[in-house]
Amino acid sequence: MLELKGVAKHFGGVRAVDGLNLSVAEGEIVGLIGPNGSGKSTTVNVICGVFPVSAGEITFEGREITKAQPHQVLAGGIARTFQNIRLFDHLTVWQNLWVAQNAMADRRAIGFLRRWLSGSAGARDSVQEQLEFSDLVDKQDEPAGSLSFGEQRRLELARALASKPKLLLLDEPAAGMNLEEVSQLDDRLRELQKAGKTILLVEHVMELVMGVTDRIAVLNFGNKIAEGAPAEIQQNEAVKKAYLGGGSDLAEPQA
Amino acid sequence: MDFYFGLLQIIGVHTILGLSAYVILQTGQVTMAQAGFFSIGAYIAAMLTVLAGWHIVPALLVGGLVAAAVACIVGFPALRVKGLTLVVATVAFGEFIRLFWFNFDYQIAKGEFMVGPLGGEGFKQIRFFPENGWTTLDVALFIWAIVALVMAALWWMDRSRAGTVLRAVGEDEMAAQSVGINLTATKVIAFTAGGFIAGIGGGIYAHYTTHIEHLNFGILLATFAIAYPILGGLSNVFGTLVAVIFVQGILVEGLRFMGDWRNLLFGALIVLAMNVRPRGLIDEHTAKIVKRLFSRGKDTSGA
User: Fold this and answer.
1) Looking at the domain assignment, is residue A184 inside a domain?
2) What is the pLDDT of residues A17-63, one digit of tens each?
C-alpha cells in the first residue's frame, strides 16, 4: 500500500533519513522504532510532504506522492498525528473535527464551495461519530486547549480519523500516557485495524509496539537495521546493540 | 447634528476597513497592505462616478473587485513569506500603491473644469453625493447599510466551515495542512476577500470626503486597519465595530476637549485596553455571555 524506495532526507550535512526502504501492506499495523534521533519522525514528515525528500520515491496505492503537498497527501488517504500534540487550541472540539472533513469522496469540483462553507453532506454525522468513538461528546463545545492531556491525544486521533484515511501515521501517540491509557490506546488501534485501517506506528513505548503491531521496522541513523515480527525484533542482536548503545533498554518504556 | 452624522460616517468607513483586515488576520497573516487596497477602491470608484458618470453602487462594486484582483495577484507571492517578512512585504506594497497614485494623472475636461486624479494634488471634486442631492443623513444611512451588509456576511462566514478553516490556519499552519487544508488557497482567498472589502470601504471614503490624495493612504491608515480588529478581538465581527467606536468616537473625538493631552492619553488607553482585555474588547467569553442572554433555554450546541 505504502512504499518507500531509497528515501533520503538530508538537513545540510545531517542525514536524518538515508536511503530507507519500507513497505506497509493494507490492513497491517507496522511499528517504526529506533533510538532518539534515528529518523522516525522525519520519515513521517517526509511521507506527509512536510519536508521534500532529498532522494528516493514514495508511492501510495501505486500512485507517486513523493512531491505531494501535505493537503494532497491527506486527500489521497493518509492522515497523521503529531509527536507534540498540535490541536487548534482556540477552536472547540467540535470545530477541530469539522475542519478535518476532507475525504476523497468530497473532492468533486462542484462540491468545492459547499465543502468550504458547510463541510460535506455527511460531515456533521461524521463529526458526531468521531466524538462518540473518542468519548468526547460532553466536551464538544469546549475549546480544545482546555482539555486534559489524555483527551487532547484522543481528539488528535479523532481529527486524523475524521478525514476517513486509509492509512494512519501515528507519531508517538502513547508519549506521556500512563499504563491504563496505553492499554486503552492498544484496544483502540486493534479496533481501527478491524475497521480496515492500515497503521504506521512510530513509538517508544514498547508495551504498545510489541503487543499491537504485526511487523516492526527498526531505524538507526536514518537506516533500517532490522525488520520482522515483534518476537524476532526482541531477539535481534543489531537492535539490542543500537538501543544499548543509545543508553537504554529495549524492554523499558521511555515515555 | 451634521457633526454626529459625519462621525457616524467615519466610524462606518473605518469599520469596513477594520473588517477587511479582520478576514486576513483570521489566517494569522499580519497585513499592512489594507490602506493600499483601500486607496485602489477609492480612486477607481471615484473615477467611475466622476469621469464615467456611473452611479455609486456599481462604482463601489467595481472598485472593490479591482482591489480584490490586485490583492489576489499580490497575495500569491506575498503569502509565501510569513510573520515579520510579510509585514515588511505588505508595507512595501502599500507604499508602492501610494506612490503610484502620487504619480498618476488622468484628467478630462468636464464643462470648463478639468477633473480627475492629478498626481500629488490628489483627486478633487468627487461630488456624487452633493450633485445628486444626498443629505448627510442619506449618506450616513447608505454607509451603515453597507457596514451592516459586510458585518452580516462576515458574521455568517465565521459560523460557516470557511471561517473555521481560516481560524485553523491562523492557529497552526502545519496542523491545518495535515488535516487537508490547502494553505496557499486559504490565505489567498482571505487576502482577496480582504482586498474586496477594503476596496468598497475606500470607494465610500472617496465619496464622502470628496477629495482624496495619496497622503490619506499611508502607513498610519494601514496601522489603524489592523489595530481595530486586534484591539476589538478576533473572535467575532462586533469586536472590530466596538474598537472603531472606542478609537474614533471616544479617543479621537471624545477627548478633543483635552487638547494636546489627547495624543498622550490615546496611546495610553489603547495599551490599557490591550492589557485589561488581552483577547480583545469583545472576546469569546463576552460573546458567550451575549449569546446566552439572547438564547435563554434554546439549544446552542452544534454550529
Assistant:
1) yes
2) 998 999 999 999 999 998 888 889 999 999 999 999 999 999 999 99
How far apart CA B147 and CA B18 sit, in angstroms, is: 11
CATH number of the domain that residue A48 is part of: 3.40.50.300
Using the beta-carbon criterion (under 8 Å), do A74 and B176 form an inter-chain contact?
no
Q: Where is the domain boundary, A164, A194, A227?
A: A164
Q: What ranges do the domains of chain B cover?
A: 2-231
pTM over 0.90: no
The structural domain count of chain A equals 2
Instruction: Report chain A's terminal Cα–Cα distance, integer Å.
Output: 30
Last residue of one domain, picked from the residues A148, A164, A180:
A164
- Give domain status of residue A255, yes or no: no
Three cell numbers, residue A165 = 484515511
pLDDT per residue as tens digits for the range A199-253: 999 998 888 999 899 999 999 988 899 999 998 888 888 888 887 665 455 555 5
Q: At what angle do helices B237-244 and B136-159 cross, to 10 degrees?
A: 150
Give residue ranges of B with CB < 8 Å to any A CB: 160-162, 164-165, 167-168, 171-172, 174-183, 284, 300-302
Domain containing A10: what range?
A: 1-77+167-250
**Number of C-beta neighbours around residue B132 at 10 A:** 11
A79 near B CB under 8 A: yes
Which tens digit of pLDDT belongs to each residue from B59-116? 999 999 999 999 999 888 877 788 889 999 999 999 999 999 999 999 888 888 888 8
